[in-house]
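Allow me, if you will, to draw on your knowledge of protein folds for a short while. I am sending you one protein, given as its amino acid sequence and as whole-number tokens for its backbone shapes. Kindly check, if you would, that the fold set down in the tokens agrees with what the sequence suggests. The record follows directly beneath this note:
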Amino acid sequence: MNKTFYALTATALLATSTSALATSTVDLRVTGKIVLSSCTPSLSRNGVVDYGKISAKDLNQATPTALPEVTLQLAVDCDAPTLFSVSGADNRSGSASQPGAYGLGLINGNQQLGYYALYLNSAIADSLETNILQSVDEGITWGLLGEGTLPPAVWAGFGDQTGGKWSPKAIANLTTNLVVQGAIARADQLDLTDEQPIDGLATLEINYL
């Protein structure tokens, strides 16, 4: 009887040990997709919006000072019809004086100089007008871009809802207006004892879908 008891005890311990080992692991899955075509984005004016020199005396003290609106043309040329979206990344993150916009740099490391917003309109895909879409979950779901604003991290796609829901379409050649609307923060919150550069920098990226 004792031998049988010991055998059952050992079996129970072995089962417990095996179960503990099984729950102490985790899987890592590496996924992705190699696409057969590539797309190249380009901007008119070499992607430069230069406001020149602005006198500190011309800035509003208690409200932001609007900068002139500038319209660039964004073009995306692909080797073949391709599903893609466009997104913007703010390389001056943390310096925008308005939430959801792109920054113009910092004064003394902590004063937000201002901001600029990006808008898309008048999109033409393969010679036809197209809807501008947006995704806030990296391409899982899509809807109309609304007012056309392209804040950082939002994906802009181009397509329709012929399949019953908004979704991007494969495009070979796209052109769209990229409107830049900026402003300098209220001057009474800025140290303007020295010249300060307007230093905005954003990266537009093609996301393959």
Notes: Residues 36-208 form a domain with the Immunoglobulin-like fold (CATH 2.60.40.1090). The first strand starts at residue 39 and ends at 43.
